[in-house]
Write a structure and sequence with these properties.
By secondary structure, the chain is mostly helical. About 85% of the residues lie in helices and about 0% in strands. It is built from 7 helices and no strands. The chain is globular.
């Protein structure tokens, strides 16, 4: 195995651990401070937006494979030429979910979780920028820009670790929805 690849893989793995901790902090705090019922509502609210995000990840992975062996100039050209398409796809999915969630969620989860609909709609806002941000992130990964990756990870995860406890304390579910 190439030592440089192994070193880079270990670096990315360590960063992903902090990302995982930061992303789950809201769940732990919601349960601790607001109770299991509030956590259940949040879990229901993010289920469909996260499922759509997973499907979108497959689409981004295909686009990523097309540019994986390209030069930086070609990657930038592809981003300039197709970036707006990724934004339109994200916007279309967000609008579709915004309309569909009030219809679909009561069918899937019963009316017991009707209050989760508004949280799910707001959580789906993240889908607008998800494709372009993920694609950009992949381009940075391809170029092995360790410093940029590290700074971005530490900044976003650090901000999340600082803000989520405050957000949960002051705004409950809304705090976690907006933070994530």
């Amino acid at each position: 195995a190439d030592p440089e690849v192994v070193s880079y893989g270990i670096y990315l793995t360590l960063l992903s651990v902090t990302t995982m901790v930061a992303s789950k902090l809201g769940n732990v705090l919601l349960n601790h401070f607001k109770g299991a019922e509030v956590l259940a509502t949040y879990a229901i609210a993010i289920t469909i937006p996260r499922a759509v995000q997973s499907v979108m990840q497959n689409f981004v992975d295909v686009a990523k494979m097309k540019v994986a062996n390209s030069s930086r100039v070609d990657m930038e050209r592809a981003l300039t030429m197709h970036g707006w398409k990724l934004m339109v796809i994200g916007l279309g999915l967000f609008l579709s979910l915004w309309i569909a969630l009030p219809i679909v969620m009561p069918i899937i989860f019963s009316h017991k979780y009707d209050d989760a609909i508004k949280y799910a709609q707001v959580a789906s806002l993240g889908l607008v920028f998800f494709p372009i941000c993920t694609f950009l992130g992949n381009l940075i990964l391809f170029e092995k820009k360790k410093r940029i990756i590290g700074i971005a990870s530490i900044f976003s995860n650090g901000l999340n670790l600082l803000m989520v406890p405050l957000a949960v304390y002051f705004w409950g579910i809304w705090g976690v929805v907006w933070a994530n």
